[in-house]
Task: inverse folding
């Protein structure tokens, strides 16, 4: 049986028990009633049907209707237990005293959108270090009442100002929703509809066992075991592209790929325990910590965080071009573009133990005031990689080498040349098997720049 909405499906003494002496209404999972529950409107309508008979209308009626999704329990009536309350769908209610004052209030929480089967959604009613969230009664899409207020005799709390919903399942995209997302400042006893949906996450390819071999909630498999999330009480300065920025949340990538960093962060944000390695900024429980990173295509973006900006340290050089941070001022920050130049070597260079290569700028025409740094002249200059190291080394038996170039900031050719394509001339020479070879190319704003160096076979060299 599915969700009940027809009062005729609620039968007294089977699915429904009414005690006129204790003034309670009880629902039982039996007969037509499954854990999928029954709508509040159906329960109210069933009471109307019953009170149309003298067997019941000699007693005060239990409800005052407000809307189809909102009622008040009056005249001393209440639901019998939480099992009953958690079976009621699409509605909220208040239990009122004789003066019309709320003794307790329940809000109906309904989620909109598709949820992957088996997803355990949960909610948070107070924000604090010790709050890890409460699971909804059923998995999948949510339609359940949540108690948001109780007077001193009914729990003594008021959670009407906070309700955060989460859906975080391994291998699925994360989802969350708050009162602000539905334009509500404070809850009352009615039904609310929150956007909350998830789907398969194409950026998750590692199962939890590949991160946490001991299944104890702690990453212990490389490179995840060396990654960390840290919230700092004081701003952490990072210089990016020659400019200093402040951050309060630091993710240590431990040299992993951006996909591995993402997998680690998502794993941590599904843990109930504290995930912050620095206790100085307070405990951060993973399950209720806002999302820190997200992929858009193949680019990883850090999200703004309530306590400050988010930065990722120790990322792979080849990943820097597809990474964006957000600083304490909520400004988007990224590394200057790093171009990649791949040099391919023919067999005669590869097999020559003495083979070397060097990358020169062909000219400095892109500079505002060229100085004649042209290849073939005494002023020719060697191009440097993004660490400031000359692009020159031994071939060392390799068939290729990948070199990095600070495309946006390299000013070796003079002011104005940064951010401009760099014409290059690459030379290589061996001794025993590789003749001198020269090839030209251009370093563009790309990671696919390629120059091939195929040296003729050396037949004349001799040095006894």
Result:
């Amino acid at each position: 049986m599915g969700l009940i909405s027809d009062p005729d499906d609620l039968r007294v003494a089977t699915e429904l028990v009414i005690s006129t002496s204790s003034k309670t209404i009880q629902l039982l999972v039996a007969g037509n009633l499954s854990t999928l529950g029954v709508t509040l409107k159906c329960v109210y309508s069933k009471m109307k049907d019953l009170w149309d008979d003298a067997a019941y209308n000699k007693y005060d009626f239990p409800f005052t209707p407000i809307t189809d999704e909102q009622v008040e329990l009056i005249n001393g009536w209440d639901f019998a237990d939480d099992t009953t309350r958690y079976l009621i769908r699409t509605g909220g209610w208040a239990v009122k005293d004789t003066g019309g004052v709320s003794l307790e209030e329940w809000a109906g929480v309904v989620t909109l959108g598709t949820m992957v089967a088996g997803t355990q959604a949960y909610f948070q009613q107070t924000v604090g270090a010790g709050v890890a969230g409460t699971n909804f009664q059923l998995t999948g899409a949510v339609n359940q009442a949540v108690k948001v207020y109780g007077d001193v005799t009914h729990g003594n709390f008021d959670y009407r100002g906070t309700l955060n919903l989460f859906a975080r399942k391994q291998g699925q995209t994360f989802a969350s929703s708050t009162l602000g997302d539905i334009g509500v400042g404070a809850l009352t006893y009615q039904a609310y509809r929150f956007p909350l949906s998830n789907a398969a996450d194409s950026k998750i390819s590692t199962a939890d066992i590949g991160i946490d071999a001991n299944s104890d909630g702690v990453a212990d498999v490389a490179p995840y075991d060396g990654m960390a999330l840290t919230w700092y009480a004081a701003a952490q300065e990072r210089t990016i592209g020659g400019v200093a920025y402040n951050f309060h949340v630091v993710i240590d990538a431990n040299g992993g790929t951006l996909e591995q960093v993402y997998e680690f962060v998502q794993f941590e944000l599904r843990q109930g325990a504290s995930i912050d390695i620095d206790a100085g900024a307070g405990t951060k429980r993973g399950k209720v910590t806002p999302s820190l990173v997200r992929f858009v295509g193949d680019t990883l973006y850090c999200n703004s965080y309530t306590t400050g900006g988010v930065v990722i340290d120790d990322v792979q050089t080849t990943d820097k071009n597809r990474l964006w941070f957000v600083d304490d001022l909520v400004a988007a920050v990224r590394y200057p573009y790093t171009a990649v130049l791949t040099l391919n070597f023919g067999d005669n260079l590869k097999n020559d133990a003495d083979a070397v290569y060097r990358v020169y700028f062909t000219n400095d025409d892109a500079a505002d005031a060229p100085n004649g740094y042209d290849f073939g002249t005494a002023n020719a200059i060697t191009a440097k990689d993004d660490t400031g190291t000359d692009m020159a080394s031994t071939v060392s038996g390799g068939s290729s080498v990948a070199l990095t170039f600070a495309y946006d900031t390299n000013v070796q050719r003079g002011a104005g040349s940064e951010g401009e394509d760099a014409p290059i001339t690459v030379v290589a020479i061996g001794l025993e098997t590789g003749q001198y070879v020269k090839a030209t190319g251009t370093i563009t704003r790309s990671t696919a720049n390629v120059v091939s160096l195929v040296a003729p076979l050396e037949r004349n060299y001799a040095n006894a």
About this structure: The two ends are 94 Å apart (CA to CA).
